[in-house]
């Protein structure tokens, strides 16, 4: 397997954060999803005046990838922060973890990035242990 460029993926998530449409929460999130074939899909959070239709950055990236025929992933980077504030480590919400579970193996690498060089890495299995997924049906 090719070596993953964590900094590149973190930077792609940070860049995607700039596209965030978040007038209600004013919390901007970007994600970058690395496919096994090397392609990177990015996404941002997209909010709604009706609130609940809001889509998180991770799901935006995932839906873009899957809708273009990509279902195998090696890593996802996430960057989030309140508008204008110092970035902190932003972890994927429960809905995004469950949505990723559909396609992610336990060894998918999850990178939560403050900057391109200041990030934490986790395995997906760490973030969603004892999970329910396609293999359980
Ligand atoms: N958000 C994400 O995009 N990803 C997460 O994993 C956490 C939350 C978004 C949803 C909403 O637009 C804003 O951040 C505040 O919750």
What secondary-structure arrangement, pairings included, does this model have?
Elements: H1 6-17, E1 27-35, E2 40-44, H2 57-67, E3 73-82, H3 94-101, E4 109-113, E5 119-123, H4 124-127
Parallel strand pairs: 3-4
Antiparallel strand pairs: 1-2, 1-3, 4-5
The chain binds tetrahydrodeoxyuridine (THU).
Measured by DSSP, the beta-strand proportion falls in: 15-25%
Please outline the major beta sheet: 5 strands, mixed
Can you tell me the residue ranges where pLDDT is under 50 for at least 5 consecutive residues? Answer: none
* Rounded average pLDDT: 97
Number of strands: 5
Helix coverage percent of residues? 25-40%
Radius of gyration: 14 Å
The hetero molecules present are: tetrahydrodeoxyuridine
N-C termini distance: 30 Å
Q: What's the helix count?
A: 4
Helix-strand category: alpha+beta
The arrangement of helices and strands along the chain is HEEHEHEEH
- Biggest sheet strand order reads 2-1-3-4-5
- Describe the global form: globular
């Amino acid at each position: 397997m090719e070596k993953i460029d964590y900094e590149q993926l973190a930077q792609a998530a940070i860049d995607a954060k700039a596209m965030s449409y978040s007038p209600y929460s004013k919390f901007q999130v970007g994600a970058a999803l690395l496919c096994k074939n090397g392609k990177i899909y990015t996404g941002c959070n997209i909010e709604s005046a009706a609130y609940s239709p809001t889509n998180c950055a991770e799901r935006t990236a995932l839906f873009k990838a899957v809708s273009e025929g990509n279902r195998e992933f090696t890593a996802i980077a996430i960057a989030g922060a309140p508008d204008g504030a110092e970035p902190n480590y932003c972890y994927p919400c429960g809905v995004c973890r469950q949505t990723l579970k559909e396609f992610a193996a336990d060894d998918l690498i999850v990178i939560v990035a403050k900057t391109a060089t200041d990030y934490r890495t986790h395995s997906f299995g760490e973030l969603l242990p004892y999970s329910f997924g396609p293999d359980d049906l």
